[in-house]
Every structure is written in structure tokens, then in C-alpha cells.
Amino acid sequence: MYLIGLTGGIASGKSTIAARLAEHGAVVIDADVLSREAVEPGTPGLAAIAERFGADVIRPDGALDRAALGSIVFADDQARADLNAIVHPEVKRRSQARIAEASSDPGAVVVYDVPLLVETGRADEFDLVVVAAAPEGERARRLVDLRGLDRVEAERRIAAQATEEQRTAVADVVIDTAGSLEHTLSQVDAVWHRAAAAAVPAPDRQDGV
């Protein structure tokens, strides 16, 4: 198995990269999906969030109000740290289980799409670390135009994450997503060819060889 850690700041183009790698045949594990699973109604994670942040972050149907929680944690470093302490251990447990399942195929290429790879200090767990990169101004524009955030909130969310310098410091490959889609995909294809070649199991050695 060949394990890729895919990371990048909010609105940096990770989803585009992950989707292209999946088209090639990679097994993609999305940390955001795991984090949603970890706080579904009835989970210990959601109960801990309600205890820490109050009933206002729980919707009438019992689900987490992500917008309400986001407005708190992206404006308060301690609140964000408290949330991470609740969610990250469960996400890590779930990711390790999914990776172990995928490892049953020794030739698999597994991509763990994890936005907070740098923040959680997990870079050394991967065979290859790929960073999606785009200027902060472009990422803020995407958040405003594509996700409907106002500019101040977009910039606050970008500032709450690791810097581009911190991410590129742990990167084996940096994919520039600020240009055309074709340019982004050509870089992803090169990563795939590299990973697929490395993932091919070595043939059994014969005595005397």
C-alpha cells in the first residue's frame, strides 16, 4: 500500500485533486466526512460539543448546527482547540480503521484528504505528502463566490489555519491550483503516476537472486 497525505488550506482545491486521484483508482478517505460522522446525532462527540458550547449549536432536529459552531470556533482560538480535542481523536481512530481496511490490497494507493495535517503533526505518517496551494486572496475569493461567505469571515477562516509556509515545509509535492483546471489536473496526473509506480508490490525474491 502507498499512502498519500493530501492537505491544503480551506478552498485550496483539495477536493479537485482527490476526485482526480479517485478517477485513477486511488482509495480516498476524507477527514471531513469522518469528522461529520464523529458528531452525528447520538454520538459521544456531539454530546461533548453540546456540553462545551451549549444548546445553541444544536439544531431543533438534534443535528449539529455547523454554521453556529463555526462562528464561535473561527473567532476564538481556545474554543477551536477545545473542539479539536473532542473531534480529532475520533477522526484519527476512524481514519486508521479505514486505512487498515484498504491495506488488504498491497498495491493500493490510498489518499487521506486531511485539511489539518500540519496542525495535527501527522506528516511523517505518509509515504508522500501532497499540498494543494493557491494564494490567500484567491482562496478568499472562492469562499465568497462559491460558498457564500462574506469577505471578513473568509479571511478569518483562512487565518485560523496553518500558513502556506508551514504546509509547504512538510510537502513532498506542491500542486498549484491557482491556474486553469487543466494545469491542476496535469500536476495531479503526475502524482498518480509516481504513486502507482511506487505502490506496485515488489516480486518475491528467489533463492540466490
Structure description:
- The protein is α/β, with parallel strands linked by helices and 209 residues long.
- Helices cover 52% and strands 12% of the residues.
- It contains nine helices and five strands; from the N terminus they run βαβααααββαααβα.
- The chain has helices spanning 14-24, 31-38, 44-53, 66-73, 77-102, 136-147, 151-159, 164-169, 181-199; strands at residues 2-8, 27-30, 109-113, 128-133, 173-176.
- Strands 2-3-1-4-5 form a five-stranded parallel β-sheet, with helices on both faces.
- It is globular.
Count of helix runs = 9
N- to C-terminal separation?
24 Å
Say how many strands there are. Answer: 5
Secondary structural class: alpha/beta
Strand percentage:
5-15%
- Main β sheet profile: 5 strands, parallel
Estimated helix fraction:
40-55%
Overall geometric form: globular
List the helices and strands and how they pair.
Layout: E1 2-8, H1 14-24, E2 27-30, H2 31-38, H3 44-53, H4 66-73, H5 77-102, E3 109-113, E4 128-133, H6 136-147, H7 151-159, H8 164-169, E5 173-176, H9 181-199
Parallel strand pairs: 1-3, 1-4, 2-3, 4-5
What's the short story on this structure?
The chain is of the alpha/beta class and about 210 residues long.
Task: Note the main attributes of this structure.
alpha/beta, single chain, 209 residues, 52% helix
